[in-house]
Each structure stands twice: as C-alpha cells, then as structure tokens.
Amino acid sequence: MRLGHLNIRSVTAHLDQLAQLLMTYRLDIICLTETFLNSDVDDRTLIVPGYQILRRDRPGGGSGGGVAILLRSELRTKELQTPAAGSALETLWLQVGDHAKIIVGVGYRPPSSRMTPALDDLQRQLADVLANDLPTYLLGDFNIDTLRPAKPGVVSYLQLLQELSLHQLVTSPTRQSENPTLIDHIVTNRPQTATETRVTPCDISDHDLISTTVAGVREPRQRVTVTVRSTRRVNTDAMCLDLLLADWSGVTDCDNISDMWTAFLATWHPIIDHHMPMRTLQLRHQAYPWLRDEEVQAAMAARRRARRARDRAPSESTQQQLRTCRNAVKTSLNRACAAFFEHSYKYSRPKTWKNVRQFLVASGKARPRTTSPAAADQQWANKLNDHFASIGPSVAAALAESDTGERLPPRPPRVCSGSFAPRPVTLPELSTALSRMSTSRAAGPDGITVHISSGIDERVDRFSLDGFPSSPDTFILGDVNGHHPDWDAACLEPDDTAA
Fold first, then answer.
1. Does residue 403 carry a pLDDT above 50?
2. Kind plus residue range of the DSSP H or E element containing 426
C-alpha cells in the first residue's frame, strides 16, 4: 500500500491536478494539510475519481488550515476519536483496511502556534492510537525542521518520538527555497515495514510530495465492470438481411400474445446476439478532460522548467518566476474547464449533466454544516426573529399610508373548467413519436439502443407489430406484470378490446 502526504494549500484550487497526481504515482492514500476547506464546501464538490475523502476543517470555521485524507473508494475506514487538549494542532486519525488493518493519521501544526501545547497534544494522541497495537503511520506538516536541531522545539519533538519508539522516515528537504527545510514528516512505529520512502518534486505546491510503501498490507483494487452490447462493428445491413430471411412462422402460428412474444424473442435474440454480442468491459476512472488541453500542457511544461530553474539557483527572482508560472497554470485550467463545458452544453446537453455529476458535483446527500459564521454570532437568532417580526407591522403601516378611503371595485370571479381523458395511441402516432426520439445510446433491458432500432428495415419493424392479433393499429399501455412473468419493464401491447 502506497501512502503519501502533500501540503496542498487549498484543495479546491488544485483538485484536478491532485487527481492527476494520484493517477501518476498510484497512491492508495494521500494525506493533505492546509486544505483551506470550511463548512461552505460540500464533500460532493470534492470529486477525485476512484477516491473518497474524509476531512477535518479548522475548528471554529477559521480561514486556512484544515486536514483531509483521500483514499481509494473500496478501502474500509473507521474514524478514531483521540483526546484533544485544545491546542492549535489539527489531526485526523483513521483505521484502514479489513483484514490487514493499519492506522493512518494526518497532522498539521501552524507555524505561529505555541510549540509546547502542540507537542503535549501530539504525545497524548499518539499514545492513544498506539494502544491499538496496530501499524501506525502519521503523515503531516508540523513546521518542525529536523535538519536544524538547534531550532526551538526540535529536540523536544525528537525526544517525544524516541520515548514512544517512533521513527521519522523522511531525511531529505521537503520545502525548497534559499534555505531548504524538512518540515513534512512520516512517523511510524513499524519502520521495518516501510520501504521506498521518497521526496518527489511537486509543482502543485511549494512543498514536495512525500511517500512510502507499506509492506504486508495489500488491499486489491476492485475492478468495476459493466456488461453492454458491442455496437462498434455492427453491420446494420447484414443484420437487417438476417432478420428478413429469418423464419417468423412461429409468431403467426400462436394463438395468444404471450406465446407470440416468446416466439418472437426466440427468433430475434439469436440474430441480435450474433451481430451485437454482449461484452463485459472494465471501467476506468477518467481524469479531468481539460487537463489534456494544449494550452494547459504548455503552461505545466513552463511550470516544470521554472521549478527546475529555482532548484538549481534558489533566489527571489527564480521563486517569483515559479509563482508566475503556477498562476498561469491555474488561469489556463479555468479557461480549459469553461471551454470544455461550453462545448459539451452546445452539442450534447444530456452529456453535459453527466459530466457535471462526474467531475463537478457528485450525487448523494449534502454534508450537514456543523459550524457557520451565522451560528457563531450569538445575536444572530434574535436579529433574524426581529426581522421577520417587523415585516407584518411595516406592511400594515405602508398600506395605511396608501389608503385613500375609496372603496375598491369588486373583482369579477373567473370560472374555468377543463378535462383530460387519455386515449389509446395509434400506430402512426407511435411511429411518429419514435422517429422524434433522440438517436442516443439509450438502450432497453435487452441492450438494443434507440439508434440501432431506428436502423432496422421497416418491413421487419412493421411485421413485428402487425403480426400480433386483434387490432394492429391501436395500442395501449398495459400492466405488464399481469401478462407475462418475464416482462420486467413497461412495454406496448395490443388492445384486444379495440374495434
């Protein structure tokens, strides 16, 4: 299992690039610090294909800060409650896995916070989770530069880890500047199981990506499959010819509609299965399409060059050039995203809403807000009550001022009547309605799409309707469950009562 951490400095600003990073490095779990999320941001808008998110925003709804953990959707998790002493330390602990369980935590200590309360809080939380006797991994940005032991708090931090038999795995600087620092850490009680600990240059943030591989913990990736009819190589002319040459006598020899329907399917299905066989496909998580935009790719390439130039010669000018390139990437991403949805809406509105649900707002229940600026104001409820209580008197006063004393003329009553009576639909009306349907990829229970159905020869299509007894021109929508046990979807059936 591959674990990683990144101080991302705003999840919403880098969500699409974060998804690309996860796909590139195939991380199973990534811990994020400085998410900059608050109660106004719903989880449904934080879409990373194939991953779920658990987060803990900064207490009190303050700006900045916040931690989160993104992990593969199929991984089972359980949030652990740990004692908190009210320090500025922000943490989130999860128990991950089903059979081989591990504990993964993310932590962030603001650089301006007091060191001693944060370390005391961290010690209590670590002691609590270590009592579970499971492999434990804490990843985060603690703003403690272990490359400089003379700095305040570094010795106390290292002593804390030693007392709890913990090991800090990262040994290279994680934040590049004129004075590189190692402030992003991976702490564990099982260093022998952690291999391939790396610091990977990352263009998203001014912090680098740190990662490690946990041996002995393997949660297989679950493949998502779907069974569909393959229409990629279908020859409509050949299929129509086979339908025309087929023996349909079994349909006309039947006495009731159920037997006719069964006989029709017995002839229909073998031909359809031959030309459009059912195939099982593996679904792959699609990255954000606008990341493939040429302007976006060029901006990202310029950002990589600026990053390498800054690493070779750290200075204020090279750092400023890197900031400029990062802003250019954000601008190009916003433009490409807007252009993608504009094009999608112009040419396929149904697909637009599918893309919105896939990349922007996922379906599901909204996350309830636990805190809000309004709730923090103790006088807010009274102000709201006073506002609505004053509406009635203010409206009455306005009406009294505008009253001239004259009586209004009576308003004549308006009486309307109407009726609606459904009637059976005729075959020409049905044919017209079907012809107006979109030739989309929408399919019925048998996998036959509207596009394929419209391409079948009219003689076969007409025969399949005219072959039924009673009135071939008048159809009604019936209760399918009461006519045939195999009919599990609504269908059109002949009206035996038609004249």
1. yes
2. strand 425-426
